[in-house]
Amino acid sequence: DADVTQTPRNRITKTGKRIMLECSQTKGHDRMYWYRQDPGLGLRLIYYSFDVKDINKGEISDGYSVSRQAQAKFSLSLESAIPNQTALYFCATSDWERTEAFFGQGTRLTVV
Amino acid sequence: AQSVTQLGSHVSVSEGALVLLRCNYSSSVPPYLFWYVQYPNQGLQLLLKYTSAATLVKGINGFEAEFKKSETSFHLTKPSAHMSDAAEYFCAVIEGNQGGKLIFGQGTELSVKP
Lengths: 112, 114
Hints:
Chain A is mainly beta. Chain A has strands at residues 4-7, 10-13, 19-25, 31-38, 42-51, 54-57, 65-70, 73-78, 87-94, 102-103, 107-111.
């Protein structure tokens, strides 16, 4: 089983719909991150959490919200999806800043 | 705040040629620096990292990078490219005492020609 699991892997949704992307990890890490990847823009940080009670906005949090349900689970929500949120979304975990981050396989989201 | 700039969104080399992917960072305190690779339809995996130990860092698959504080650079090199090196490469930075946000550059797509 993968250390970082994202569900769903692919999703097509309509403008205005609410959608949740889920991430779970078996690494036992405290830190979890959500990024979106767009061609030519690299990975941009949406939200990050350093423990269950610590949630922080990243570079591009507008239009997104998150929930850290447990140490192992970190969900990203789009309350009202819009087409420019079409992207590849990655969840990642790390135990502290000096170590590597482990990434999920990504969720390809298309908003039509 | 920290930032990362990767020079060149696309780099093309011939098989067997030197690979050089450029990364410059901005950080007000000593950074931790990383290179990640993304193969098609996959997530990211770590190639190598610099965390204030040796300035020349060796990673997987024959890649290495050198931290140059005076140039604020952390360029990735490999002496001889293989076809299997074709992928997208990301440089990333964490500012040493700023709570550990991992910030990525824009990525460089490496193509390897036969």
